[in-house]
Amino acid sequence: MEEDQPTRRMTIIVDTPTFTRRVDHDHFAPGEQVLIILGAKDGALTGDVFDVVAPSWHQATDVDGWRVRDPRGGTVSYFTAAPKYLIHTGVDCSPCVDYLRQLERWVLPHLTGEPGQRDTNSYRIVDGELVHIADAITADEAW
Ligand SMILES: [Zn+2]
Q: Can you give the residue range of the structural domain that contains 104?
C-alpha cells in the first residue's frame, strides 16, 4: 500500500476536472453508452465502456447518479456512478468532449514516460458504488 501513495496523491492533484465537473443527472439516459477513464496507454487516456441502466443515488457524492452495467460481466458487473465520472461515447456531445480534453491536459502529462497500460488509481468500487479518490477523501470514506 505504501508504494501506491505517490501515484494516488498525484492523481488527486492533477484530476481537478473530475472533482470539479458539474454535469446534470439528466445529461445521461438509460440505454446510452458511457466511457469511464481508468488509465493511459501509449500517450492516450484509456477506459472502459459501460451501459447506462437506471437512476440510482450515489451516496459518496450525495447526488442522483446512474446504475451502469459492465457488458464484459465480471465480479462487479453493475455499480452506481456519479454523473461527473461519465463520458458519452458513440454520440456527439461537446460537454463530454470538453471534459475529456481537460483530463488529457491535466492528467496525461503525469502518466507519460512509460509505455503500456497505466492505471490512474483514481477509482475504487466501494459498496456497489464507483468512487473517485478525491470524492472518497472529501466524504471521509475509507480508501
Ligand atoms: Zn455528454
A: 2-138
Q: Would you say residue 143 lies in a domain?
A: no
Render the burial of 20-42: b for 16+ CB within 10 Å, e for the rest: ebebeeeebeeebbbbbbbbbee
User: Cα of 90 to ligand 1 centre, how many Å?
Assistant: 10
Is residue 14 situated within a structural domain?
yes
CA of 100 to the centre of ligand 1 (A): 10
* Residue 103 CA, ligand 1 centroid: distance in Å: 15
* Residue 54 within any structural domain of the chain: yes
10-50, pLDDT tens digit by residue? 555 567 889 889 999 999 999 999 999 988 888 888 899 99
